[in-house]
Amino acid sequence: MIYQILLGLSTGATYSLVALGLVMIYKVTGVMNFAFGNIGMFFVYVAFWFITMNLNIYLGIFLSFVLAATTGYLLERFALRPIRHLSHASMLIVTFGFLMILEDLSIQLWGTDYKKFPKLISGRPYVFRGDFGILVLRRQDVLIYIVSLFTIVFLILLLNKTKLGIAIKAVSENEEVASYMGINVGGIFSFSWIFRTLMAVIVGVLVALNTFVSPSMLVFYQLEGFTAVVLGGFESFKGAVLGGLLLGVIENMVGKYISNDLKSTFSLLLIIIVLLFFPNGIFGIRKSEKLRKRLC
Q1: Which terminal Cβ of the chain has fewer Cβ within 10 Å, N or C?
Q2: What is the C-alpha to C-alpha distance for residues 141 and 209, in angstroms, rounded to an integer?
Q3: pLDDT band of 290, cuts 50, 70, 90
């Protein structure tokens, strides 16, 4: 049971990273980003291409981060910002278009064959023995735990302990009032998209370490990220983290003790149940409570 929970938390941490990227964009711009998975996939391919050119693996990943951040800025600045005052539907269509462009481009450049991403760390696995039995963790799994935890903690500190985090929260609450207070709203929009692209690449690398690089490698994880957002609440960073972790544990239990084939079906069913009984998410704040907090 302990081993299954740990595996579920590892997978759930990845779901949480996807959910955080989606919530960041939704809170700041009001748009649900459907290109998240394909952005991560494309720049994992870029990192893989750098590595096949005999570049150091860490340098290859770093350069893909730089290119991803640049792409996120350019997408927001020149494709989304000019139309953001028209309608959210227009921005949504742009993200769909970007999704299709990246998918087609990756297939044209690298094909559809699965590619093995090199390991970041190797060595003998860690073995723990106790009353619970034997617990075996690969060094790469431990690395994924550490990277996921560090990213989540960094974001929490950024949002709650820095001026940038306060500015992000202010823009997400009321863009017009935030601009009157001297906050660079355009800069916050750009940062949110840069942050989202970096989160997508982090998720893509973590997934590639345990699976393969392919055009569809993050489709499942984007679906699970959406489920985590619905579970935790569309406007709650804390809910995104907790929703992802809870979803990972529950799914792992379903796969272990019921049927592994029902995991995806369970996620879709969970979305329906949560929307019916908890429309703001289990960890979300109802509008009446939010209004009361503002008045107080």
Answers
A1: C
A2: 9
A3: very low
CB–CB of 232/282 below 8 Å?
A: yes
**Straight-line distance from the first to the last Cα atom of the chain, in angstroms, rounded to the nearest whole number:** 45
Torsion angle in degrees (nearest 10) through CA of 82, 88, 91, 97: -150
* Displacement of CA 181 from its chain's centroid (Å): 30
Measured in residues, the chain has a length of 296
Please check the confidence at residue 193 and state whether its pLDDT lies above 60.
yes
Domains in the chain: boundaries:
2-295
Q: Which residue has the tokens 């907790």?
A: 242
Which fold is adopted by the domain 2-295? Answer: ABC transporter involved in vitamin B12 uptake, BtuC (1.10.3470)
Question: What distance in Å separates the CA atoms of residue 12 and residue 62, rounded to the nearest whole number?
Answer: 25
Give me the half-sphere count of Cα atoms (radius 13 Å) on the Cβ side of residue 291: 3
pLDDT in tens, 13-66: 888 889 888 888 887 777 777 888 999 999 999 999 999 999 999 999 999 999
- CA 36, CA 96: separation in Å to the nearest integer? 10
* Cβ-contact 238, 176 below 8 angstroms: no
- Taking phi over 0 as left and psi of -120 to 50 as alpha, with beta for the rest, 182 belongs to left
CA neighbor of 152 nearest in space, from 237, 33, 25, 44: 237
Could you tell me which residues come within 8 angstroms of residue 218 by beta carbon, excluding any fewer than 6 positions away? 36, 37, 38, 40, 41, 200, 203, 204, 207
- Nearest in space to 226 (alpha carbons), one of 42, 82, 4, 36: 36
Dist. CA 289–CA 296, nearest whole Å? 11
The whole-model pTM stands at 0.86
Both tokens assigned to 29? 């711009």
